[in-house]
């Protein structure tokens, strides 16, 4: 097989079978990788142009009942200094975000039973009343169909639930007592309810192979989510995976480029984790087809506590500083900041009435 031909075929047809994806991952040279990234960038230019969307990230609780092996706020980590933001805290973040031009807020947290359906409905309703035109994205892990539906009916627009890894066996070893199938079911429920959905996976997980990564690629191709968050696994000192190596920038960026080619209309964040393992990691992600960045809006006093992995960047910067910094980085990479809701383009075409 000739890799340039495979990339050309992927560029043209936005599809490639599993075996050929594995072949690319196993054999691609540096030059061929550059070609892949160029094609991925071309594809993004055709769909979203040079616009990079900003979302304000509010990390509102680090309590979690789950025990994912990789995560620094897993329930077994007794060293985690737990916090919850109040309604007022959250509103302050949203207000700050609106002033900074963020028209989407991502409310992210551990699976915290304190934030019941009623509580979430209250939070969503208050934000939506005040900022009816802005979008709310939730990222609170696995909940029931009924729970997702209540939050959607209250006005939430999107939901991020990374599938983490599409290999069932690897999934089970990383998530005690959990299954990939139930994660997948949640994503299907979310879509059926009407959310714009975000899947995604980590790169460089312990014992993860190129075959596993090709499964991730096939999974996202078949699911066709509106968003796909891809970031390197980064070990956290207080977890059982602390001795493992993390994912690399190169591999993560390669996976982003492949996903952009498989799904030209996907919203593809260049993640904070990528920026945490390389000072220009996010820029590299943007150049490879990434078109979303999520600057932190959480109060600085809690930033260190939302510690999913070691070495997380931007924990000391005020939201306004993050805003300036991120715009500078995006402009320097040759792209421009877009301060609209930034919906998935295919979704927006079908839902014009919901945006205006
Ligand atoms: N509790 C929710 C959302 C918070 S975690 C959930 O799990 O869906 C958000 C994301 O952080 C996870 O989906 C996971 O992909 C990522 N994450 C957690 N620990 C990580 C680590 N050690 N390195 C890199 N990413 C990590
Ligand atoms: Fe909890 Fe999410 Fe971390 Fe898993 S990844 S322990 S669900 S916060």
Can you walk me through this structure?
There is one protein chain. The protein has helices at 3-13, 18-27, 30-47, 87-99, 117-130, 145-153, 168-174, 180-193, 210-223, 249-262, 272-277, 281-287, 300-303, 319-332, 345-350, 352-355; strands at 51-54, 56-61, 104-109, 135-139, 158-160, 196-203, 227-232, 292-293, 336-338. It has 356 residues and is α/β, with parallel strands linked by helices. It has one domain (23-348): TIM Barrel, CATH 3.20.20. The strands form two sheets. Strands 2-3-4-5-6-7 form a six-stranded parallel sheet. The chain has a three-stranded parallel sheet with strand order 8-1-9. Strand 4 (135-139), helix 6 (145-153) and strand 5 form a beta-alpha-beta unit. Helix 2 (18-27) crosses helix 9 and helix 6 (145-153) runs parallel beside helix 8. The mean pLDDT is 97.
The radius of gyration computed from the alpha-carbon positions, rounded to a whole number of angstroms, is: 19 Å
Structural class: alpha/beta
Instruction: Count structural domains.
Output: 1
Order of helices and strands: HHHEEHEHEHEHHEHEHHHEHHEHH
Share of helix, binned: 40-55%
**What small molecules are bound in this structure?**
S-adenosyl-L-homocysteine, iron/sulfur cluster
CATH architecture: Alpha-Beta Barrel
The CATH topology is TIM Barrel
Spans of at least 5 consecutive residues whose pLDDT stays below 50 are none
Contiguous helical run count:
16
Question: So what's the CATH class?
Answer: Alpha Beta
Major sheet details: 6 strands, parallel
The CATH superfamily appears as Aldolase class I
**Strand portion, in percent?**
5-15%
What distance lies between the first and last C-alpha atoms, to the nearest angstrom? 48 Å
What general form does the structure show? globular
């Amino acid at each position: 097989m000739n890799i340039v031909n495979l990339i050309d075929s992927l560029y043209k047809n936005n599809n490639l079978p599993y075996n050929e994806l594995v072949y690319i991952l196993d054999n691609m040279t540096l030059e061929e990788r550059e070609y892949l990234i160029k094609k991925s960038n071309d594809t993004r230019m055709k769909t979203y142009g040079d616009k990079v969307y900003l979302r304000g990230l509010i990390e509102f609780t680090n309590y979690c009942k789950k025990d994912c092996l990789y995560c620094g706020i897993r329930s077994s980590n007794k060293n985690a200094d737990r916090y919850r933001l109040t309604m007022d805290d959250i509103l302050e973040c949203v207000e700050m975000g609106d002033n900074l031009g963020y028209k989407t807020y991502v409310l992210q947290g551990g699976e915290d039973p304190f934030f019941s359906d009623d509580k979430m409905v209250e939070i969503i309703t208050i934000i939506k009343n005040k900022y009816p035109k802005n979008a709310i994205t939730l990222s609170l892990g696995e909940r029931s169909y009924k729970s997702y539906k209540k939050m959607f009916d209250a006005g939430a627009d999107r939901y991020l639930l990374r599938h983490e890894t599409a290999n069932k066996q690897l999934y089970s070893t990383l998530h005690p007592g959990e299954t990939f199938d139930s994660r997948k079911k949640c994503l299907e429920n979310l879509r059926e309810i009407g959310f714009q959905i975000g899947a995604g996976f980590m790169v460089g997980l312990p014992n993860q192979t190129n075959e596993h990564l090709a499964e991730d690629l096939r999974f996202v191709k078949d699911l066709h989510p509106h968003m796909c968050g891809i970031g390197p696994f980064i070990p956290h000192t207080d977890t059982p995976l602390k001795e493992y190596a993390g994912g690399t920038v190169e591999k993560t960026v390669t996976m982003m480029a492949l996903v952009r080619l498989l799904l030209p209309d996907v919203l593809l964040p260049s993640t904070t984790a990528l920026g945490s393992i390389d000072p220009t990691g996010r820029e590299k992600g943007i150049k490879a087809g990434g078109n979303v960045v999520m600057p932190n809006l959480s109060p600085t006093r809690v930033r260190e506590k939302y510690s999913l992995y070691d070495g997380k960047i931007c924990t000391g910067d005020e939201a306004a500083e993050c805003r300036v910094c991120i715009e500078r980085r995006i402009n320097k990479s040759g792209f421009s900041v877009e301060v609209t809701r930034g919906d998935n383009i295919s979704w927006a075409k079908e839902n014009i009435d919901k945006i205006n």
